[in-house]
Amino acid sequence: MAKIEIYTTTTCPYCHAAKDLLTQKAASFTEISVTREPNQRSTMQGRAGGRTSVPQIFIDGTHIGGCDDLYALEEKGALDTLLA
Description:
Layout: E1 4-8, H1 13-24, E2 30-33, H2 40-47, E3 56-59, E4 62-65, H3 67-76, H4 79-83
Parallel strand pairs: 1-2
Antiparallel strand pairs: 1-3, 3-4
């Protein structure tokens, strides 16, 4: 199974939607809350090419993008391949 990391905040509806999709796919993920660990925001920003919005999602170390990007992969049928 792929290693999934998702940077989130506690009140972000897009973060919840991304986590819901991953949960529906029975994909385990590590959630990194930039609300609880504000120092992780700069780490996220560096890994995500300067993006500051959440969620930022990484699968096997590759930056996937945000919630819309994750759902776009699902629509194209490419998400299952990445999660395998």
